[in-house]
């Protein structure tokens, strides 16, 4: 079974405004509400690709109920821990001349809630896949992902981590199967702006030397680079299309990569499916459907191998 964990789920309120004016009343011409949070998005795209997973994490209040309901409406299984107080966040995604986002802090998670999560984590067994994705509320310590992987030590699971800064760095020693920083997040880890592909590959390999098995670096409209565990490196441009909503493109890429890998344990197929799923979501109002992904997959033929 595949388990996704989202510590801080959200309702994503996606609004479109013509020429947004700061400090004034702006009227939307389009509004949409979707269940969000990185692990949840991975579960939805996996489901769209015909793969069931269990979405775990913490929800609270009426917004939490709505997240769970909408996720279940997509046909996804969930096993959330319900917090006794607070509200799951509503993240505002403002589309105008530029895309801006306001992501909430999220409710307080207490020690007893973490214990409940660990009980669920203990049920994960050999052959399962665990996806840890997204930020954690700032009331939690930055070693929480690390603690989860420590708990699973000795079990033969594939761990995927999509997180930033220390949350990511701290898990490398547990040899995660896949990490997926974007090029900016990767640069942030090394305290500088990465200048070119060689620079990106060098940093990705450095994360491998610290423990990551496969490093997938997404670069939005520029495509992605994969440094796989054998050291082989691939780059692919992104397919061209009209970007409608890039929220969740990275999560879709993680779902696509997993789906592609689990089909035949082939990294090139995983990489191509990851790019197709990421771009298909960027070109859709919602997260990518199977048909969208398959249509783009046919366009991603050239995988440039680089040293
Ligand atoms: N403008 C775009 N045009 C084509 N493909 C895109 C575009 N933006 C994203 N993608 C696809 O989605 C993948 C992931 O995108 P990106 O690098 O923006 O991830 P991310 O920063 O993790 O995104 P997010 O946090 O919004 O989920 C890219 O590698 C690419 O395949
Ligand atoms: O605040 P975090 O956890 O870093 O990111 C949350 C979020 O922006 O990530 C998803 C897109 O990747 C959205 O569905 C959600 O609103």
Automatic annotation (TrEMBL):
- Top enzyme class of this protein? transferase
Record field: transmembrane: none
Q: Name one GO molecular function term.
A: ATP binding
Q: Which GO terms describe its biological process?
A: carbohydrate catabolic process; D-tagatose 6-phosphate catabolic process; lactose metabolic process; small molecule metabolic process
Which InterPro entries has this protein been placed in? 1-PFruKinase, Carboh/pur_kinase_PfkB_CS, PfkB_dom, Ribokinase-like, Tagatose/fructose_Pkinase
Q: Pathway membership of this protein?
A: Carbohydrate metabolism; D-tagatose 6-phosphate degradation; D-glyceraldehyde 3-phosphate and glycerone phosphate from D-tagatose 6-phosphate: step 1/2
GO CC annotation, single: cytosol
- So which domain of life are we looking at? Bacteria
* Domain Carbohydrate kinase PfkB intervals: 12-286
EC number per UniProt: 2.7.1.144
SUPFAM superfamilies xrefs: Ribokinase-like
Tell me the keywords, alphabetical order. Answer: ATP-binding, Kinase, Lactose metabolism, Nucleotide-binding, Transferase
- UniProt catalytic activity: D-tagatofuranose 6-phosphate + ATP = D-tagatofuranose 1,6-bisphosphate + ADP + H(+); beta-D-fructose 1-phosphate + ATP = beta-D-fructose 1,6-bisphosphate + ADP + H(+)
Q: Pfam family of this protein, just one?
A: PfkB
**Family (UniProt):** Belongs to the carbohydrate kinase pfkB family. Belongs to the carbohydrate kinase PfkB family. LacC subfamily.
- UniProt xrefs under NCBIfam families: 1-PFK, pfkB
Q: Supply the PANTHER family for this chain.
A: 1-PHOSPHOFRUCTOKINASE (PTHR46566:SF1), 1-PHOSPHOFRUCTOKINASE-RELATED (PTHR46566)
Its annotated function is as follows: Catalyzes the ATP-dependent phosphorylation of fructose-l-phosphate to fructose-l,6-bisphosphate.
Q: Would you tell me the protein name for this molecule? A: Tagatose-6-phosphate kinase
Organism annotation: Caproiciproducens galactitolivorans
List the top taxonomic levels of the source.
Answer: Bacteria, Bacillati, Bacillota, Clostridia, Eubacteriales
Q: Which gene encodes it?
A: lacC_3
């Amino acid at each position: 079974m595949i388990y996704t964990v989202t510590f801080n789920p959200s309702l994503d309120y996606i609004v479109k405004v013509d020429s947004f004016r700061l400090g004034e009343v702006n009227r939307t011409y389009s509004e949409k509400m979707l269940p969000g949070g990185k692990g949840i998005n991975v579960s939805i795209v996996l489901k769209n690709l015909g793969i069931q997973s269990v979405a775990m994490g913490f929800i609270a209040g009426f917004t939490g109920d709505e997240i769970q309901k909408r996720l279940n409406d997509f046909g996804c299984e969930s096993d959330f821990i319900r917090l006794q107080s607070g509200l799951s966040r509503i993240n505002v995604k403002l589309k105008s001349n530029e895309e801006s986002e306001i992501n909430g802090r999220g409710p307080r998670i207490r020690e007893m809630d973490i214990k409940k999560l660990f009980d669920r984590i203990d049920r994960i067994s050999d052959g399962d896949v665990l996806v840890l994705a997204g930020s954690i509320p700032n009331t939690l310590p930055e070693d929480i992902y690390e603690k989860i992987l420590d708990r699973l030590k000795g079990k033969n699971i594939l761990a995927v981590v999509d997180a930033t800064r220390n949350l990511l760095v701290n898990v490398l020693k547990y040899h995660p199967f896949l990490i997926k920083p974007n090029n900016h997040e990767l640069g942030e880890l090394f305290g500088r702006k990465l200048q070119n592909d060689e620079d990106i590959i060098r940093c990705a390999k450095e994360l491998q030397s610290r423990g990551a098995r496969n490093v997938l670096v997404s670069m939005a409209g520029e495509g992605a680079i994969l440094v796989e565990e054998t050291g082989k490196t691939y780059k692919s441009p992104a397919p061209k299309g009209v970007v409608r909503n890039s929220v969740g493109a990275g999560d879709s890429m993680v779902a696509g990569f997993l789906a592609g890998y689990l089909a035949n344990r082939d990294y090139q197929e995983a990489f191509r499916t990851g790019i197709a799923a990421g771009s298909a979501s960027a070109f859709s109002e919602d997260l990518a459907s199977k048909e969208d992904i398959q249509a783009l997959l046919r366009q991603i033929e050239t995988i440039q191998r680089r040293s």
